[in-house]
Each structure stands twice: as C-alpha cells, then as structure tokens.
Amino acid sequence: MSAAPPSASNAPSNALHYALWGVQALLALAFVMAGAMKATQPIDVLLAKGMGFVAYRPEGLVRFIGVSELLGGIGLVVPALTRVQPRLTGVAAAALAVVMVLAVGEHAMHDGVAAGAPAAVLGLLCAFVAWGRLVRAPIPAR
C-alpha cells in the first residue's frame, strides 16, 4: 500500500527531513550500542555498568531485549537509506517506542521514577521518527 505523494503546499520541509535523519542516526547509534551490549556482555558486566534491571529478569529476556534493540536500531536507518521498504523505518521506530514505554515502567519499578527518564526521552524521539516517517515525511521506495 503506498500513500499518495503530498501536494506542493502540503509537502514536508527540508528541515523536517534533516531533523528526522539526525534523530534516526542518533537513535540507531544508541540502540545498536545498547543492544549489542545486552546481547553479548556477561550479566555481571551489565550489572557493573549500571543496568540494574538485569538482576530481576531472566538472562534469556535480557538477550532478547538486546537483539531486539540491535535490530530495531538497524531498522531505523537501513530501509530508509536503501529505499527498500522504507516504511519499515517508521515501523521500527514505533516498535522501539513501545519497548521504551515498557523500559520506563521497568526502571521506575526497580530503580525509581528518575531512572526511567532516559528511556522516556528515547521513546519520545522514536515516536517522533515513527510519526515523521509514517505520516508526515515518508521516504518513497525505489
């Protein structure tokens, strides 16, 4: 299903495209790094790095979260960059926003409300990218 191209008066600005690309790149970097760490580092190393939630969750779940964040981070950039199924960039952003809502709750439960702030910021940025790439400024496929 393809969306109709926006009319000239309704076309998104270049500033929005640049802002989305910048946020996508930063989010991709954050999620790829955090995901790779959760997917590969020993649990005691993650605990030492301040990831307290790993003490309360099974190792398999921690690894699953890591792989999900890693793949989501890749999904924030690669489909849009290659223009092969670029809508998947918005889908990845929306999925990561949901993961961050869950992360806010997890951190708030175990580490206090303030500990959920970074996840909340990441979630809001993911929601911005999802809105931008799915609604306001989608990237056309090849």
Question: What is the helix/strand order?
Answer: HHHHHH
In angstroms, what is the radius of gyration? 17 Å
Number of helices: 6
The biggest beta sheet is recorded as:
none
Number of strands: 0
Question: What global shape is seen?
Answer: elongated
Low-confidence stretches: none
SSE order and pairing:
Elements: H1 14-40, H2 43-48, H3 59-75, H4 78-82, H5 87-111, H6 117-136
Helix pairs in contact: 1-3, 1-6, 3-5, 5-6
Give the structure's gist in a few sentences.
By secondary structure, the chain is an all-alpha fold. It has helices spanning 14-40, 43-48, 59-75, 78-82, 87-111, 117-136.
Record keyword descriptors for this entry.
142 residues; mainly alpha
Could you characterize the architecture of this molecule?
- By secondary structure, the protein is an all-alpha fold.
- It has one domain (about 15-135).
- The protein is about 70% helix and about 0% strand.
- It is built from 6 helices and no strands.
- It has helices at about 15-40, 45-50, 60-75, 80, 85-110, 115-135.
- Helix 5 runs antiparallel to helix 6 (about 115-135).
- It is elongated, with a radius of gyration of 17 Å.
